[in-house]
Amino acid sequence: MGYETDLKLFIDGVWKSGEGRDAHAVVNPVDAKAIAEVPYATKADLDEALAASARAWPEWRALDVEKRGAILHKTAKIIRERADLIAATMTQEQGKPLGEAKLEVLASAQLFDWYAEDAKRDYGRTLVRPAGQLSRVIRQPVGPVATFTPWNFPIYLLAKKVSAALAAGCTVISRPPHETPGCCTELFRALADAGIPAGVAQLIHGEASLVSETLIASRVIRKVSFTGSTNVGKHLMRLCADSMTRVTMELGGHAPVLIFDDCDLEKTLDMVVPQKFRNAGQVCVSPTRFYVQRGIYDGFVKGFAERTARVKVGNGLEDGVKMGPLANSRRPDAIESLVQDAKAKGARVLAGGERGDGGFFFQPTLLADVPNEANIMNDEPFGPVAVSRPFDTFEEVIEQANRLPYGLAAFAFTENGRRANLIGDLVESGMVGINTFAISGADTPFGGVKDSGFGSEGGKEGLESYQVVKAIHQA
């Protein structure tokens, strides 16, 4: 299956490439070989995109919500029609198995359908006032938006931002990661073919610092939405401070998983192992820190190790592969360093623990008895490594779950209803899944607390994040 996407910039309704621009190699993580080149935007390109976004905004925000919605619905339809091409492109760029990639593409289409309809239900409110007076509260689009998205869910996270911003009446300039420009290009090709007006939605590939500093410094941009690492998020927030630009930050996590002795152990293992190695563990809400009640700890790690050893690793385009390579050359180095540090501090390797053969592969790995002093218990691994340790009391495991500065997602498995209620209240996390990993959907707010960021995407909260609140009082 060949790489078919023609990589270009999309600025003011025109596809652009070459013409003296620098280019960056796109690499297949299976074998580390280049499969395409993506053109990088110049400063002049960015200035043109900003001018187009500012020009297009008044007309787009004034467009009837039904007409905006029709374009978003058509975009969703085109994405579904091209799902096989987009998914294959994603697998070749990012490494995830083809089945996972296609599910991501279809979920992205669902986001466009959801926001096409949700914008029609964006009601304000009227306040109680004496006769002859009127006070009302309305929401309006914040203005031109800049989005920055990562490579782990390249089209879904882009769609989550773009669909909500467009539905709210904002114009958008998006900078996707250099690892996965093809599938992101296809999303904007769908928007273009659906009839998005020139300047309303624009795609900029380019060097991260040039793009972020240019866009954020411009008074045109009224909102920045970023998904990525905590360190980069804090840097972008500092850039936004000078212009008081609004931000939504969906940052890193290190999700605890609380396994209690009243759970159905076999059923729980059948759920947690595939979830841990989904997308090779490169998931911001990936279950990572497994705290297991002592009475079932040995049985849990034994069953986890057995299932981990059966995970088929390989080229995501091949049938039966459940885990592909990591997305870039940095990830195996980082994972190897964390595993070696944990081993040196007393952790036991019960499965995996080594690099794979060629490309950017790393074996699915389970570490047991991992001390809190190990780096991997404190730093997000963002890879195919599960770490585990036993606990004795409820109070102890809640303390461990809340120990880190992260608070994006947390999970628990228990059949005790009162305990489940307490976990939902006491765990410091933007999202909590109890006996489930289904915490992300088109209608669901997605976001974290503490160093995992603030603001939500998805659901009505996602639409509201691209709006400003205005109170209008009339006597």
Please provide a written account of the structure.
By secondary structure, the chain is an alpha/beta fold. It folds into two domains: 9-251 and 452-474, Aldehyde Dehydrogenase, Chain A, domain 1; 255-442, Aldehyde Dehydrogenase, Chain A, domain 2. Helix content is 39%, strand content 21%. The protein has a seven-stranded mixed sheet, sandwiched between helices. Strands 9-8-7-10-11-21 form a six-stranded mixed sheet, with helices on both faces. A three-stranded antiparallel sheet has the order 5-6-22, with no helix packed on it. The chain is globular and about 65 Å long. The chain starts with 8 loop residues before the first strand and ends with a strand.
CATH class of the largest domain: Alpha Beta
N-to-C span: 67 Å
How many H/I helices?
A: 14
In CATH terms, what is the architecture of the largest domain? 3-Layer(aba) Sandwich
Which outline best applies?
Answer: globular
Give the tally of structural domains: 2
Mean pLDDT: 97
**Number of separate strands:** 22
CATH topology of the largest domain: Aldehyde Dehydrogenase, Chain A, domain 1
- pLDDT below 50 for ≥5 consecutive residues: which ranges? none
Structural class: alpha/beta
CATH superfamily of the largest domain: Aldehyde Dehydrogenase, Chain A, domain 1
Oligomeric composition of the shown chains: single chain
Strand order of the largest sheet: 14-15-16-13-12-18-19
Percent of residues in beta strands: 15-25%
Radius of gyration: 23 Å
Q: Percentage of helical residues?
A: 25-40%
